[in-house]
Design goal:
The chain is mainly alpha-helical. It has a domain of 75 residues. It is 49% helix and 6% strand. The longest helix has 21 residues. The protein is globular. The relative contact order is 0.13.
């Protein structure tokens, strides 16, 4: 089964217009039954009509800052000015993402439950369920 991920490195390391073109071509060329795409970009809304569900993974800001402070895989966000930038971006962007998502999963639950919730959303979408979902 084609996952549509073969151009991932092209997306990551391409200028924005090239990345958008590659993603459009890939989505049009391969139609896997289930495809999960993750990311955030200023033009993401132009792709929403190609997806059955748009999921927002959210977390309270205090939890986010704690996770950032304790992670060992990325140093960004440990300095006060970086945290201020993260919180400013969160305040500006999260309401926009929430307004255009079809479902939100608050990720304070165990990761296995996050995966179960995402699988449930994908199954409902694959079964042709209504476009607007809710999940506790």
């Amino acid at each position: 089964m084609s996952t549509g991920l073969r151009f991932l490195n092209d997306y990551l390391y391409s200028p924005p217009m090239r990345a958008e073109h590659l993603l459009r071509c890939n989505l049009e060329a391969s139609r896997p039954r289930l495809l999960f795409v993750a990311g955030c970009a200023s033009n993401q809304g132009s792709f929403y009509d190609r997806f059955d569900a748009v999921v927002l993974f959210s977390v309270p800001r205090e939890v986010m800052l704690q996770r950032i402070a304790t992670r060992s895989t990325n140093p960004y966000g440990k300095r006060a000015h970086e945290q201020q930038r993260i919180l400013a971006d969160l305040k500006a962007v999260e309401p926009l993402l929430r307004a255009t998502s079809t479902v939100e999963i608050v990720t304070t639950i165990p990761v296995t439950e996050v995966v179960d919730a995402l699988e449930s959303i994908a199954r409902r979408a694959d079964d042709g369920a209504a476009r607007r979902f809710t999940h506790p």
